[in-house]
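Regression report. Comparing outputs from two consecutive submissions.

Submission 1:
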Amino acid sequence: MSQEEVYKRLKQYLEELFEIAPERVHRDARLFEDLDLDSIDAVDLVVKLQELTGRRIAPKEFKSVRTVGDVVDRVCDLLVA
């Protein structure tokens, strides 16, 4: 799965799970400040990403994630590993 495919899927998840308008989602958008996610939302998103990757994602793997681009990069890293 390419970075662009992961990005499109992430945008879809953000819209479906949290009703975030797609035009608000861009690679530099900060998850908590710009998209108004909270820690419970972040857990829900990780669960969805686990389904996408087919792998368990440890919380420490997402500790430094702050932006949509960070999520895309981390998911791509997991898909390659």
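Submission 2:
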Amino acid sequence: MIMIKITFNAFSFLRENLKKQNIPYINSIMELPEHYTPNALINDLGYEEGKVEFVFINGKVHPKNTELKDGDRVALVPPGTPGSYRLMLGAKKIEKLED
């Protein structure tokens, strides 16, 4: 099986869940199977539907079904990010793509 390595970060209250599980959440290197997606990561980390609002891959917002590549930097962002930041970070654009 081919594996990839990503650098993982989680923001805000998402960190609490990971801390309880002793899962590193700041610039953590994760080894994952090839063809892995943020959706799979979210599920494997134990987050319920809706706990992750959007995903950054290499500094840009992407759909949660994007296939991750070796060396990607991945960050999970929870709901509740203020509106102005949502626009600035690109989250509003991705919502339209996923509707």
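Expected: both submissions complete independently.
Actual: both completed, but the second showed a warning that disappeared on reload.
Relevant detail on submission 2: The CA atoms of residues 86 and 92 lie 6 Å apart.
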